[in-house]
# Entry
Amino acid sequence: MNTSVRNTGRLIAAGLRALLVLTVVCGVLYPLAVTGVAQALFNDKANGSEITSNGEVVGSSLIGQKYNLPKKNPDDPNEADRPDLRWFQPRPANGLGSNTVNTQYSLILSGATNRAGDNKQLIEWVKTAKAAVIADNTAAGWQPKAADVPPDAVTSSGSGLDPHISPEYAELQVRRVAERNKLDVDRVAKLVDDHTSDRILGFIGEPRVNVLELNVALKELTQKG
# Structure
């Protein structure tokens, strides 16, 4: 009986020592090592790929943002968003509805424009979105054609949070942005060119424009006048 108790005691002690060692190694030393390497070699990415403007963090280059006017009645959940047309607009963000699990936070569940190509609801969404894009981007003496509206202007990405738009969609917005901010069209067009990223390694993905980075540069341009 005593031997059994002693053996049990040794096993418990060995288990506690193993728990302590593993806690220190896996719970303290390893996270510190990984954090140190990340901060030393990939500081920007490790900290969330933050974008700053005037010394303040305004968002992440990995997550899309909306650029809307303030709501006339913030307490009305049915009031439609109105885009602030001074800024380049992102892809549509098709939220799947408000968060109903944790009501302490006002979260939006994001998702794609996930319908079959012949789905009637999708067709109506696209028609409505295309008409809005044409109306919003009509400038003095110029109106975009329906054929000029690229797919990413009327459909959301797979996550609904894509931070990028196509160069074609950015170019479609140039005249409107220039007009609303009283800037020369060529200066705004150059801004788009300067913020257009090519395919990764020349063949992966598609050319793209980060909307937040572009709007930060636009803000700096408007401040210069």
Residues 50-224 form one domain. Strands lie at 50-53, 56-60, 95-98, 108-110, 164-165, 196-197, 208-210.
